[in-house]
Automatic annotation (TrEMBL):
This protein's UniProt keywords: Membrane, Transmembrane, Transmembrane helix
InterPro entries named among the record's database cross-references: DUF2569
Species assigned in the record: Mesorhizobium opportunistum
TM spans (from-to): 6-24, 36-60, 80-101, 113-136, 148-167
Name this polypeptide is given: DUF2569 family protein
Signal peptide extent: none
Pfam family, one: DUF2569
Length: 189
C-alpha cells in the first residue's frame, strides 16, 4: 500500500468538507417561514434514500463475505468466529431496519435512533475485530491488515455528517415531532 500524500488528504478534505459545510450551513440557516419545511424534501430526502439503502449494503457486505466465511469454517474455532460475526452484522441490520421504520413513520424517536445507529458503527467494528482476533488467535494488526479500516471509517464519517444535519435541521425537527398512535398508547399506560 502506497503512502497517502498531502494532495490525497486535500482531495479527501474537499470531497467531505465542502458538502458538510453546505449541509450544516443550510440546515442551520433559519427559514423565513419554517412551517413549510416538513416532510421528506431537500437534504432530508438524500438522508432517507441513504437510510433506505443502508440495510441493502449490509446484506451485500454479508454476501460478499461468504467466500471468506467458507475458508474460516475449516479453521479451529472458525465456525464460532463466523457465527459471531454474522450475528453482529444481523444485529446491526436489525438496528438499521428499526431506524428505517421509525424514519418512514416519522417517529419523534428517529433522530435518537439515527444517532444510536451512527454510534453502533464503531462498536460493531471493534467487537467484531476483538471476536475474530481472540477466537482465531490472530493479532489485531493482522485482522486489520490491508484496507480493513477504510470502509468503517468512511461509513462513520459519512454517517457523522448526517448526524450533524439531523441535529441542526429545521426540516428534521418539524418532520419528526409527530407522535404516532403506538407511542401515544405507550405513553398513556
Amino acid at each position: 500500500m502506497g503512502t497517502f500524500s498531502i494532495w490525497h488528504w486535500a482531495i479527501v478534505l474537499l470531497l467531505i468538507g465542502v458538502p458538510v459545510f453546505f449541509a450544516v450551513r443550510s440546515a442551520a440557516k433559519p427559514s423565513q417561514n419554517p412551517e413549510p419545511l416538513v416532510g421528506f424534501g431537500g437534504w432530508l430526502m438524500l438522508l432517507a434514500i441513504g437510510q433506505a439503502l443502508s440495510p441493502l449494503r449490509t446484506l451485500a457486505d454479508l454476501a460478499n463475505s461468504a467466500d471468506g466465511y467458507q475458508q474460516l469454517m475449516t479453521l479451529s474455532n472458525g465456525p464460532l468466529a463466523v457465527y459471531g460475526e454474522v450475528t453482529l452484522n444481523l444485529a446491526f441490520l436489525a438496528l438499521q431496519l428499526v431506524v428505517l421504520v421509525s424514519m418512514l413513520r416519522k417517529s419523534r424517536r428517529f433522530p435518537q435512533l439515527f444517532l444510536l445507529q451512527w454510534l453502533a458503527i464503531p462498536v460493531v467494528f471493534v467487537l467484531d475485530t476483538i471476536w475474530i482476533s481472540s477466537l482465531l488467535g490472530v493479532p489485531v494488526n493482522q485482522v486489520l491488515a490491508g484496507d480493513a479500516l477504510a470502509a468503517p471509517i468512511a461509513s462513520f464519517v459519512a454517517a457523522g455528517i448526517w448526524v450533524a444535519y439531523v441535529c441542526r435541521s429545521v426540516r428534521v425537527r418539524n418532520t419528526f415531532t409527530r407522535t404516532n398512535a403506538s407511542e401515544q398508547v405507550a405513553s398513556a399506560s
